[in-house]
């Protein structure tokens, strides 16, 4: 029997070092809310194991992975990442990355799978930045290609920030098409070149935002014809977001997710979703916006 699989890291049930707690609080609250309202059951959740180092090295440089494992990142490298290094943080990143790989297998079987965390699209092969240590979509894409589980992949990155790390990782890999729709005047201020970048002006509203998505996505799906789609569903496009600079409403964010998933489902395309960013002042706003994504996936894929 098919069901919705959701990767969840149980490390969030334990205290994390000072400086990590608030940014990660949503990762506890999202599954808790979905369980409380009855949208999912405990058996929808699974706890991934840490990603094997061998698999990480298909994407990330050995010297960088060694720094993460041995806690030898420089102060400058930690500032670029935005978190102080800790064994718990590194363990979390290894688990998140494996969660996205596991979601690929579940998506091939059931149509869609979601990672409560992930979407760490600012991580490059040799460094991390922007709260991202390892690039979960990058590692998962290279895993699928290396294992010959897919011939063509598509990344649909709708976080408000450009997926610069992902773009750089696959700039010379035609089997992974990167599409990023992001704030023109937002982080990162030096943009990499995705296969398709759609830059958004500050203050764009629901209608203008969705019309751009309606214009680009269907043609992209029919042209690229991927075997699987990675969808980064960041909710930092919300008007309430502290850093987003856009004016998309909660309803507009919901319609974005529904449109993406409906387009994929109509074409029979498996989808792996990672949550990405969200920095509204009220954590409840962030959680509510992310939970919309889970409900949409469950309804549209009939799980």
Automatic annotation (TrEMBL):
InterPro entries, sorted: HDAC_classIV (IPR044150), HDACs (IPR000286), His_deacetylse_dom (IPR023801), His_deacetylse_dom_sf (IPR037138), Ureohydrolase_dom_sf (IPR023696)
Gene3D superfamilies, sorted: Histone deacetylase domain
A GO MF label: hydrolase activity
Keywords: Hydrolase
Transmembrane segments: none
Gene Ontology terms describing biological process: epigenetic regulation of gene expression
Superkingdom classification of source: Bacteria
Record Pfam families: Hist_deacetyl
Domain annotation Histone deacetylase: ranges: 33-291
Protein family: Belongs to the histone deacetylase family.
PANTHER family: HISTONE DEACETYLASE 12, HISTONE DEACETYLASE HDAC1-RELATED
Descriptive protein name: Acetoin utilization deacetylase AcuC
Organism: Cnuella takakiae
């Amino acid at each position: 029997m098919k069901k919705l699989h959701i990767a969840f890291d149980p490390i969030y049930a334990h205290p994390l070092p000072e400086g990590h707690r608030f940014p990660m609080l949503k990762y506890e609250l999202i599954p808790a809310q979905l369980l409380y309202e009855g949208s999912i059951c405990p058996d929808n959740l699974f706890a991934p194991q840490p990603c094997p180092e061998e698999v990480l090295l298909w994407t990330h440089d050995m010297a960088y992975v060694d720094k993460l494992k041995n806690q030898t990142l420089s102060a400058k490298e930690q500032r670029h990442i935005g978190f102080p290094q800790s064994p718990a943080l590194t363990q979390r990143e290894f688990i998140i990355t494996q969660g996205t790989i596991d979601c690929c297998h579940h998506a091939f079987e059931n149509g869609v799978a979601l990672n409560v965390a992930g979407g760490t699209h600012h991580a490059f092969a040799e460094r991390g930045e922007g709260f991202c240590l390892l690039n979960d979509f990058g590692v998962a894409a290279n895993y699928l290609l290396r294992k010959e589980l897919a011939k063509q992949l598509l990344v649909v990155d709708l976080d408000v920030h450009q997926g610069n790390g992902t773009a750089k990782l696959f700039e010379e890999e035609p089997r992974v098409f990167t599409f990023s729709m992001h704030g023109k005047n937002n982080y990162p201020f030096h943009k990499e070149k995705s296969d398709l970048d759609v830059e958004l002006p500050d203050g764009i509203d629901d209608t203008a935002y969705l019309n751009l998505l309606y214009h680009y996505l269907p043609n992209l799906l029919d042209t690229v014809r991927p075997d699987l789609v990675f969808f980064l569903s960041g909710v930092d496009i919300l008007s309430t977001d502290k850093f987003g600079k856009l004016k998309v409403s909660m309803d507009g964010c919901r319609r974005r997710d529904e449109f993406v998933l409906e387009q994929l489902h109509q074409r029979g395309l498996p989808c792996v979703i990672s949550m990405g960013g969200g920095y509204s002042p009220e954590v409840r706003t962030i959680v509510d916006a992310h939970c919309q994504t889970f409900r949409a996936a469950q309804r549209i894929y009939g799980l």
